[in-house]
Automatic annotation (TrEMBL):
Extradiol ring-cleavage dioxygenase class III enzyme subunit B domain sequence ranges: 47-256
Organism: Pendulispora albinea
Entry annotated with the keyword Mitochondrion: no
Protein name: Dioxygenase
KW 4Fe-4S (keyword) present: no
Molecular function terms, GO-annotated: dioxygenase activity
Sorted UniProt keywords: Dioxygenase, Metal-binding, Oxidoreductase, Zinc
Gene3D superfamilies reported for this sequence: LigB-like (3.40.830.10)
Family affiliation: Belongs to the DODA-type extradiol aromatic ring-opening dioxygenase family.
Required cofactor names: Zn(2+)
Length: 275
């Protein structure tokens, strides 16, 4: 297959000569306003520039799409983005990220994830995907596909899904989970005091330690961790991390944190790279 830079923008064949396989990422996407945030975006752009090479395609698993069985986003060119939020400035609804579709990647995912009975859809990328890709891929040149998180899946099954998708890393596909290590919108501090909530700091630190230790079993049972019940009233923003954890495979202990910190007193920005 041709290199994407030579016209075939949705190719996903293995590069063959690569000394290092593509890493796996998990990004703390936070507010949709990150799409317009130059400072926050610069950190993501720096992260993408540090990847070992340009991805042939990107596969995103976002907290904002739970659907079972496993469902793939549209592979039709020009599919509209999903603006799945309300009450934000008009400029955000005018923002675009018109990445190429990735039909060959879709076919590969259908093969690798066959036990999850994957199906296709006409759905565009949601804000857990396009707001961060605006900075990861400012030219919107990376073919992009999104897959749902099966809401019926247990933690161990999400890890297994990631493991099924792991071969894509050897085909220069960047697998990217998108959620947040802490996510309780009712506990956000909009007063500007800058005080960090203890429960948020505790859970974020627990995740950092568990990831650094390669403690997969512990990460699959986060309800035992300090601060979990407040950090995640519902678990969907944590669960993309489990898919990324599975896709990391043998690189699970090779972890770094490209972005850290908190917004609004409790919303963790911690992002993770395996490999």
């Amino acid at each position: 297959m041709q290199d994407p830079g030579n016209g075939n923008t949705d190719a996903v064949a293995s590069s063959g000569s690569s000394a290092r396989r593509m890493p796996v990422g998990f990004v703390g996407h936070g507010s949709p306003m990150i799409a317009l945030d130059v400072a926050r975006g610069a950190e993501l752009t720096a992260w993408s520039k540090a990847l070992p090479r340009r991805p042939r395609a990107v596969l995103v698993i976002s907290a904002h799409w739970e659907d079972a069985p496993l469902t793939l986003s549209s592979i039709s060119p020009g599919t509209s983005l999903v603006y799945d939020f309300s009450g934000f400035p008009d400029a955000l609804y005018a923002a675009r990220h018109d990445a190429p579709a990735a039909p060959e990647l879709a076919q590969r995912v259908m093969e690798l994830a066959a036990p999850w009975r994957p199906r296709t859809s006409a759905r565009g990328l949601d804000h857990g995907a396009w707001t961060v890709l605006t900075h990861f891929d400012p030219q919107a040149s990376w073919p992009t596909l999104q897959v749902s998180m099966p809401y019926t899946a247990r933690a161990e099954e999400l890890v297994a899904l990631g493991r099924a998708l792991e071969p894509l890393r050897d085909e220069d596909v960047w697998i990217l989970g998108s959620g947040n290590i802490t996510h309780n919108l009712r506990r956000l501090d909009r007063s500007g005091t800058g005080e960090l909530a203890t429960w948020a700091a505790d859970f974020d630190a627990w995740v950092e330690h568990a990831l650094s230790s390669g403690a997969v079993d512990a990460l699959c049972a986060p309800e035992r961790a300090p601060g979990w019940a407040i950090a995640h009233p519902t678990p969907e923003h944590y669960r993309p991390l489990l898919v990324a954890l599975g896709a990391a495979g043998g690189d699970v202990a090779t972890v770094r944190f490209p972005v850290v910190g908190f917004d609004l007193g409790s919303l963790s920005r911690r992002s993770v790279e395996f490999g």
